[in-house]
Amino acid sequence: MKTFHNFIGGAWVAPSTGAYFENRNPADQQDVIGRFPASGVADVDAAVVSAQRGFDRWKRTPAPARGDVLRRVGDLMAARKEEIANLMTREMGKPLAETRGDVQEGIDTAYYAATEGRRLFGHTVPSELASKWAMTMRRPIGVCGLITPFNFPMAIPTWKAFPALLCGNSVILKPAEDVPHTAAVLVEILLEAGLPPEVIQLVHGMGEVVGKALVEHPQVPVISFTGSTETGRFVGETCGRMHKRLSLEMGGKNAQIVLDDADLDLAIDGVLWGAFGTTGQRCTATSRLVLQQGIHDTFVERLVARAQALVLGDGRVVGHDVGPLVNEAAREKVERYVQIGKEQGAALRCGGARATGGALDAGFFFQPTIFTKVTAGSRLEQEEIFGPVLSVIQVATVDEAFAVNNGVRYGLSSSVYTSNVNVAFRALQDLDNGITYVNAPTIGAEAHLPFGGVKETGNGHREGGWEVYEFYSETKVGYVDYSGALQRAQIDNY
Predict the structure, then answer these.
(1) pLDDT of amino acid 494
(2) Cα 274 to the chain's mean position, in Å?
(3) Annotation says 283 is catalytic
(4) Residue 217: domain span
(5) In the predicted structure, residue 125 carries a pLDDT above the cut 90
(6) Is the domain of 211 the same as that of 261?
(7) 255-270, pLDDT tens digit by residue?
(8) Residue in 116, 249, 381, 463 annotated catalytic
């Protein structure tokens, strides 16, 4: 069994604790990927000291040169795309088509970041005084602590790390315990591309130890967190108390609305992909299906038949549509919500149990599950499950559909299927989400656009696109007075 290490201080090093945890394939628990460090607080402390040294060097590197490093990262990822996709599927389960897309998102993010090295724009503005120059510029902040989830083991770390690096910061990456191997490969690629070693640190371990220490460290002024709302609440409280810059991307309870005038074939394809892609383990997953009553019965019958035909199994095998859940705890959570749905009067139309038999017995598989007669306000309709469970809610009108969408504490993604252009634009305006799709599922973010939600999904800062570069940098205002005399703003000019 291979033993992996942290990357701290420019070298691959064993954890100070001497402890390790096993990383196993969720589709086959007999397949051990390797042993990874169960790091402690001392490892975080060492990473911070090294990252501060890296920051002092990297911040003086011209931004276009930083962009060149990230361009090379994109080239290396593209050359290794198939290899990385295979190791990701082995590590967290989703089918190869999805992990290839995950890698491509990282490639796209690298190339986009590379161009931003020549576009870290400030402003020049007129001064209210004569012979005085006024301007703004972007400056890096310092050490950035990045805490990332398991479901997009390449895409989300790149969403966070590449903009942070491009802006001149150093980075400490704490990946989810379920996907440490992918994170190690990402660091290897960054180093091969020419990133100075102390600019990147990788610390493996448990969230309650390593993540907590990173969030609480006084020399880490920036935290970017993607994960559960419950953990995000602790992160937010801690960072607020310590005056840290914080980006939170948390849960979702996303709805796809299908109206009577929709293209039903397109809508069925969309909800199958949105609900059961990544085995429902996406913050943008379609967890709720809101159907107008005129098409409800027909749509449900067709959807159930399609869901029952999905093939479960190892995502590396051609023909397998749905992979396993990431671990046993995730599967047990799904089971609990299936029971909750039954107890609250929802009608189980398909699935609702572990997927077993043959090779499925070796992994954490669960049948694609659909409930109808789900009541707005019920736990099944309100709470994030993070698994292959779809709740169907019947409505009479467009206004009722919009109200159902908005009636949850989350606000990440939404979708509406309609042929009415007026309704489509109403949805863009009135659906209370950070992202709204028209005639497309609730998943499908693109690297060059901002990503994030409202309400309890996030705190307003966006990943991706042009907005993330403002998060990882600070505005510096500069004045140059070349008048040769004392000029008093707001006094001498009025």
Answers:
(1) 76
(2) 15
(3) yes
(4) 6-250+458-477
(5) yes
(6) no
(7) 999 999 999 999 999 9
(8) 249
